[in-house]
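*** Residues and shapes ***
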Amino acid sequence: MTNDTQERDLTDGFNLVIDALKLNDIDTIFGLPGIPITDFTRKAQAEGIRVISFRHEQHAGNAAAAAGFLTGKPGICLTVSAPGFLNGLTALANATTNCFPMILISGSSEREIVDLQQGDYEEMDQLAIAKPLCKAAFRVLHAADIGVGIARAIRSALSGRPGGVYLDLPAKLFSQTMDAEAGKHSLIHVVDPAPRQLPAPDSVQRALDLLKGAKRPLILLGKGAAYARADEDIRALVEKSGIPYLPMSMAKGLLPDTHEQSAAPARSYVLAEADVVMLIGARLNWLLSHGKGKTWGAPNGKQFIQIDIAPTEIDSNVAIAAPVIGDIGSCVAALLGGMGDNWAKPPVEWTGAIAERREKNLAKMSATLALDPSPMNFHSALNVVRDIVKNNQDAIVVNEGANTLDFARSIVDMYKPRKRLDVGTWGIMGIGMGFSVGAAVVTGQQVIAIEGDSAFGFSGMEVETICRYNLPVCIVVFNNNGIYKGTDVNKLGGDVAPTVFVKNARYDMMMQAFGGVGVHATTPAELRAAMEEAIKSGQPTLINAVIDETAGTESGRITSLNPQSGAKKK
């Protein structure tokens, strides 16, 4: 491709980066223009790449991460140097922790000045800073190496356990020129960046033997299982085995939450009582109490099977009796093939005990959801969301907050895979609007963002981005006037308590300010009508759902992680 300001037989760094991305089927960039990448965003758009411009780089990075999870190809986030790069770094680290394929591309200052610390504009050694927080980091100094740099970034983001990659492009690189034909030949189309990794047959047999001998087996599905897109085989494995399963939050929908083998309503019971647990794309991290302690009913001789593409994950918290190493699709297919036609299903004593508890807990939840307190609480409002999602099963649910997140995970059923995005492994707040934009852009589907008022505050300005691109996003802000609740009091008077916000804030007016639809809802009926209209119209909508300010608990369901002062001042 020629540049209109150059000789016909020359190309430059701008065009080589664009051509390399397009050669690898990357058609969308999330970012924020500025020095030194403003012209690049214009040129990329002119060449047919969709450029979604945000108000803050962290949210552009979160959009790229969500896009990576939903599409299986790296989401691209583009930022300016130094402060912009640092803003994007939180999203990059979060993507790496959650195993989302994402590439953060940042412009940077010139190496000669940075290395001598001579005080360049936004001078920073960005590569060195990024390296500890991502899977891989690369810098391209010469136009002829752009193809290699982008190819390495794509392969690193996708291969093995997916994650975040940093690609540093100094400002001087963009204007470098080279022969157009040589430039074309320097580009690389990445072939099979995430190749199948077949499990060893003896590891598959070891896992099957352990399952056969189990009296109380359990399958635990993680978001890695959802990312793997082995949906049919995972469902076949669960149903053929007859083993109860428990989905982590972003694995919800791999099988419908209403499936008869779902043990989610009896979560505490099955984790404590299972004798053999098979982890599929899930890690024994803090979300699963590290596989230890009273959550797991220790000590009771529990044994684990773990399917994971990373051998270093095995034994990271507890001993894994049967590791099965490989890509999840290949591992599940091998297990399914090895089960044969006469697989014995778990004892009825086990499945019956789970069913009894499931029905009891569902009945208790149903009674709670049927209540209609005034003002609304989390249960009565989420009962509406639950119905809306049931009637719109292709909608993508984005969820963050403390109580808003915890209650929604257990109340709002999912029916299809990769339809739920939330704070994930790192428990990071502020993903809401970025994930919503990313999901809406790459899928074209309706997005329902269920937001605590505190969580929404981290990325709320991106409602302008949602309106600017006219995206089908319905945001429901659960407004209880504060962090956790709105009732804390400063005992000394003066300033309000640190956890309290402006009372009766009208978040809906923010959306109205940018041309979207804003609705103030104080009852379940008003909330239902507003959500139904939002989905019918497909317009950007924000519903300010007023929740009882006394509703909610400190830190939601992870209060144990929030140290409480036990000392009294004398």
In short: The chain is about 40% helix and 15% strand.
